[in-house]
Amino acid sequence: MSRRVVVTGMAGLSPIGVEWKEVRDALRSGRSGVCRIDDWDEVDGLRTRLGAPVPDFAPPADYPRKKTRAMGRVASLSTRAMELALRDAGLLDHPVIGSGRTGVSHGSSSGSPPALGVYARQLFAGQTVRGIGANDYLQLMSHTTAANIANFFGVRGRIIPTSSACTSGSQGIGYGFDSIRYGQQDVMLTGGAEELARMSAVIFDVLYAASTRNDEPHRTPRPFDVARDGTVVGEGAGCLVLEEFERARERGAHIYAEIVGYGTNCDGRHMTNPDPEGMEQVMRQGLADAGIDAGAVDYVNAHGTATETGDIAESRATLAVFGRETPVSSLKGHLGHTLGACGALEAWMTIEMINEGWVAPTLNLSEVDERCAALDYVRDVPRDLDVEIAMSNNFAFGGVNTSLVFKRWTS
């Protein structure tokens, strides 16, 4: 029998803030986290200079060196965000964390790029092992966020590393949801993270998918806009603490939302060109898993990367499922594309918004590209909206698609 799963703790480190009040103010006022990264001037041939960093982040000084030496920036971001989420849930230092009934489902696009650079410089360029430290691999391994979270907090249950590019965070939440509802765990520490590195910018730059509005960073990215010229890479970490409903109710936990549906699939057609059919099907999977029809969804939080093919494909898939009546917006105009973190950060912000009765506009969406489907795009200003059920969608290189369905908690 399937068990109900609720969200009892949330936190994020984002380019527009850490505390929800600061994030809310940015979303409502149109403040962007995108800026010019001057250090990238030294990269020959790189066209973009734009990124969305988490300002002034450093791991807390009281974190023990024994725990942090295996962490690159991406693991530090994820660990700190999880600490805040656990505190929010009232589970920080709780016995259930080390009981074996708590697990981790968390990921990132990759490990820490600077640690990978150590191997590239020393072993491949220099043909030497000198200069490669014992912790470099632990920082660069693809499951570094999940493993470091488990090690830092003493988690002894199942561990599910998700390293699926832009769906790492949403798959982290989805697989955590599955772990609880099918009885394998009672609590799951879920989410995703990414650190801003020039390697990420280069990936999109060589695909001609990175924005080059280097002199006007706050006007890009522009999801679904006719004048969009590509995405902007960002960083951050988003964490949701998921808990079996009866357990959460028994301990008197504050409940933010219920997860009622999850879908994930693969296009199976192309590594980088998104497929509207696969996107449409994953949304329908999420609806079917939740046992609802499209008309029950009051708001769709779109992936909306501001890439030409991505926006067109996603908008057409969304139209096929929801028609033109359901409000849709993307948060990437504010955040940039935080890659492995985006699904978790966007889930956190979506839940916060629907609990407050409003949704953010798509920043920088001035004129919808006519090739994008004619949806009810939320634009220009925040919209007051009574949302009981929201869907959050993410799509990744490799044709990986996810759809999460959240229900506002009212009981």
Question: Can you walk through the features of this model?
Answer:
About 35% of the residues lie in helices and about 20% in strands. The chain has about 400 residues and is an alpha/beta fold. The strands form three sheets. The chain has an eleven-stranded mixed β-sheet, sandwiched between helices. Strands 2-3-7 form a three-stranded mixed β-sheet. The chain has a two-stranded antiparallel sheet with strand order 12-14. The chain is globular, with a radius of gyration of 20 Å. A hairpin with a 3-residue loop joins strand 15 and strand 16. It has two domains: about 250 residues, Thiolase/Chalcone synthase (Peroxisomal Thiolase, Chain A, domain 1), CATH 3.40.47.10; about 150 residues, Thiolase/Chalcone synthase (Peroxisomal Thiolase, Chain A, domain 1), CATH 3.40.47. Helix 3 crosses helix 6, helix 7 packs across helix 13 and helix 10 packs across helix 11. The chain is built from 13 helices and 16 strands.
Summarize the structure.
By secondary structure, this protein is an alpha/beta fold. It has helices at 20-29, 65-68, 73-89, 113-125, 136-140, 144-153, 168-181, 198-206, 245-250, 276-290, 308-322, 332-335, 342-356; strands at residues 5-13, 35-36, 50-52, 102-107, 159-162, 187-194, 233-234, 236-244, 257-266, 299-302, 327-330, 358-359, 376-377, 383-384, 389-396, 400-408. The protein is built from 13 helices and 16 strands.
